[in-house]
Design a protein that fits this description.
The chain is an alpha+beta fold. It is 36% helix and 22% strand. Strands 2-3-1-4 form a four-stranded antiparallel beta sheet, covered by helices on one side. It starts with a helix and ends with a strand.
Length: 123
């Protein structure tokens, strides 16, 4: 039983359900596909990732594989890679420890695609 499952069932228990019934209910919801998974929200800034950027990617070639290969190697910075319609082909949500690392990332990214950068000022 994973940690998040235990937290979920513990919350159900606080609401007055017995452990076996709560576990059975949660397992049934998982089997039905209602519960798809469990997540933990992490404060990235406290881990040193203070630069939050959205990068709109413009790919001018039909072969996007080199871009995808590069992005897969950058998973410590790229939180989400969305294929989008409208302006651009992809929207990257990234977090970096510093502007210097963001700059290095952008120089490498520019070998594969063009981009437009937006920095998050506050939430």
């Amino acid at each position: 039983m994973n940690c998040l499952f235990r937290v979920f069932t513990d919350n159900v228990l606080r609401q007055g359900a017995v452990h076996e019934a709560a576990t059975a209910r949660v397992l049934k919801l998982e089997d039905a596909g209602v519960i798809e998974g469990y997540t933990i929200k992490v404060d990235q800034a406290k881990l040193g990732y203070e630069v939050h950027a959205f990068i709109t990617v413009f790919a001018h070639h039909m072969n996007h594989q080199p871009f995808h290969t590069f992005i897969k190697k950058q998973e410590s910075y790229v939180q989400n890679n969305y294929k989008i319609s409208g302006e651009g082909c992809y929207l990257l949500e990234c977090k970096f420890p510093s502007n210097d690392l963001l700059d290095s990332f952008l120089k490498e990214l520019n070998k594969y695609v063009n981009y437009k950068l937006s920095i998050v000022i506050s939430k």
